[in-house]
Specification:
The protein has two domains: 147 residues, Nitrogenase molybdenum iron protein domain (Rossmann fold); 112 residues, Rossmann fold, CATH 3.40.50.1980. It is 47% helix and 14% strand. The chain contains eleven helices and ten strands. The termini are far apart. The N terminus is likely disordered. Belongs to the bacterial solute-binding protein 9 family. This is Zinc ABC transporter substrate-binding protein.
């Protein structure tokens, strides 16, 4: 069928408009909401809390999976490129670091730059920079503020709401910090034996000493010499509890607990949330506090 010139021009204009809309791919909706990729759970948590209904957040790590050794699928690499913002922590997931460098260097927040990483705590066999900043609530609040700033810049019409949510989250995290400071102020012991060196920032904030069985990588196998050293220190400090974590095998911690006459208990490093869990950052941190108070004999 031969179309008239006006009809043909109208059809071409409509097609161009459709192609432009399809090709933009930058936002999750026509209302300016932001499409965000979060590298793992704590980054997802703060983004959702400050972004609210102005963000659609994708977590690169499936619920219940260990995030350290994540390998990105081609579809996830594509997501990094299409996202309006990527929230990650350089030095925690090498594959994500590489993916950001390739696909998202211009639209990513490195939260390790927001809160500079410290050296791994004494006793960690794989010395390096400790990435577990989110276990200090005040450090996480600073990360949330930075994420809110970037989202507010993208979505200026709703910037006030985004900043209000960030203020609310900071208040909740500061209240949690006070709970920890008060709850751990008067204790019989101040040493915590952990399955891996994830709790350095928490220990520093609340004047505890972390004694890790393994280093920064939770799947690392401790040497017999290091395990003997940890056992000796556990006895020295009369440790009642050896802490293991959610996403890796508890066997080494359980074996050590039997050897020193302690019990094995789970302390969650909040690197991920189990599938189907109703818990969130605040509830898990409060559960951790209860377990720490029991283990340390706190008043």
């Amino acid at each position: 069928m031969i179309r008239s010139r006006p009809a043909l021009l109208a059809l071409l204009a409509a097609s161009a408009s459709l192609l432009s809309a399809c090709g933009s791919g930058a936002t999750a909706g026509d209302d300016g909401t932001s499409r965000v990729v979060a590298a793992f759970y704590p980054m997802e948590y703060v983004t959702k809390q400050v972004g609210g209904d102005r963000v659609t957040v994708t977590n690169l790590v499936r619920p219940g999976a260990e995030p350290h050794d994540l390998e990105l699928q081609p579809s996830q690499m594509a997501e990094l490129g299409k996202a309006d913002l990527v929230v990650y922590l350089r030095g925690f997931q090498p594959a994500v670091d590489a993916g950001v460098d390739q696909q998202a260097s211009g639209h990513a927040i490195d939260t390790a730059a927001v809160q500079p990483l410290q050296d791994a705590p004494p006793g960690a066999e794989d010395h390096g920079k400790d990435p577990h900043i989110w276990l200090d609530p005040i450090r996480l609040a600073t990360v949330a503020d930075k994420v809110a700033d970037r989202l507010a810049q993208r979505d200026s019409a709703h910037a006030a709401d985004i900043r209000d949510r960030a203020t609310k989250l900071r208040g909740e995290l500061e209240a949690l910090d006070k709970e920890y400071a008060t709850g751990l102020a008067r204790c019989q012991r101040h040493e915590i034996v952990t399955s891996h060196a994830a709790f350095g920032y928490l220990a520093a904030r609340y004047k505890l000493t972390q004694i890790p069985i393994t280093g920064l990588n939770p799947e690392e196998e401790p040497t017999p010499q290091h395990l003997a050293t940890v056992a000796a220190r556990a006895r020295q400090y009369a440790a009642t509890t050896i802490f293991f974590e959610t996403l890796v095998s508890p066997k080494v911690a359980e074996t050590l607990a039997k050897e020193v006459g302690a019990k094995a208990e789970m302390l969650d490093p909040l690197e991920g949330i189990k599938a189907g869990s109703s818990d969130d950052y605040l509830s898990v941190m409060r559960s951790n506090l209860t377990k720490l108070r029991t283990a340390l004999g706190c008043a």
